[in-house]
Design brief:
The protein is an alpha+beta fold and 290 residues long. The chain contains 10 helices and 7 strands. Strands 1-2-3-6-4-5-7 form a 7-stranded antiparallel β-sheet. Helix 7 (208-229) crosses helix 8, helix 7 (208-229) crosses helix 9 (248-258) and helix 8 packs across helix 9. The radius of gyration is 19 Å and the shape is globular. Residues 1-27 and 270-290 have low confidence and may be disordered.
């Protein structure tokens, strides 16, 4: 029995974990960790956010959220940056699933998960929801991160869906070349554009054009970050070309639309996280030079 997705908003308001390797720490309250090896096929990373949500890039992925009260939610993939305050009572913990993992593990289409979020028990079938209820998540952020990973392990023991191999191939190709036309990616895997859009929507939670748009944001800031770390001033005209934009005005327009600020403002801000082609890299820069 499938419950209808809840349309309640994620409740935004005013440890001893084993196998968690810290990747980046921020004075703005953001910490990201690489997933354990045994879950790397399904999990892209684990993150902990304290304080208000800063200006940051959107993430085109479904998150398993572990709230301070121990409640589990799914949060839908983002095409625009999320803003607001975190739930009271402690940090917000998220286990970021890889595209397609939700459908494979739970039999749920990613586009069934509202961006605003929904409790797991509103989306999972009754038997799976009971299994998840056996993984309590009361405690500090590290305890809850471990609990979130335990939930993914429970789901991986008895997956109810199957991986979409063709969409996986397209995802890899899009990360390598986010500016390539969708028609090209569809043809490479033997699908029509319409077929790819439908299957992409199920696996990823958004269309391939929207996904590529978010990837380009991450690619552009990753290039700018590398230049900055090398002591060079970013040229946004050159970066626009390298990231798959038509030109610099196109790049700036996309950042304002998705994030509300320019990429230069993000680089100088408190919390910027990058998704790069091939391997993901998280980088945080602060006004204090961290």
């Amino acid at each position: 029995k499938r419950h209808a997705p809840a349309r309640r908003d994620l409740p935004l308001a005013g440890g001893g974990a084993i196998g968690l390797t810290e990747l980046v720490s921020s004075r703005s309250g953001y910490v990201e960790q690489v997933p354990p090896v045994d879950l790397a096929e399904h999990v892209d990373g684990i993150w902990i956010q304290r304080g208000d949500l800063p200006a940051a890039l959107p993430w085109p992925a479904v998150d398993l959220l572990v709230l301070p009260n121990g409640e589990y939610w799914f949060g839908g993939p983002e095409t625009h940056a999320r803003r607001g305050e975190l739930p009271p009572g402690g940090a917000l913990v998220g286990v970021r699933l890889r595209p397609g993992a939700l459908t494979e593990l739970c039999g749920i289409a990613a586009d069934e998960v509202p961006v605003a979020g929904a409790p797991l028990h509103d989306l999972l079938d009754d038997a799976t929801a009971r299994r998840v209820a056996e993984a309590p998540a009361i405690g500090g952020s590290r305890v809850r991160a471990t609990a979130g990973l335990r939930v993914v392990r429970l789901l991986a023991e008895r997956p109810v869906g199957a991986a979409d191999v063709q969409v996986r191939r397209v995802l890899r190709a899009m990360r390598a070349a986010p500016g390539a036309p969708v028609a090209h990616h569809a043809a490479e895997v033997g699908l029509s554009e319409r077929q790819l859009r439908r299957r992409f929507q199920v696996a990823v939670g958004m269309g391939p054009k929207s996904y590529a748009r978010v990837l380009r944001l991450h690619r552009a800031l990753a290039v700018a970050r590398d230049l900055t770390l090398d002591g060079r001033r970013p040229s946004w005209a050159d970066i626009a070309q390298r990231a798959g934009y038509y030109d610099q005005p196109h790049l700036l327009s996309e950042f304002r639309r998705a994030v509300g600020v320019t990429p230069g403002m993000l680089l100088a801000g408190e919390d910027v996280r990058f998704l790069q082609a091939g391997a993901r890299t998280a980088v945080t820069r602060s006004r204090n030079g961290q």
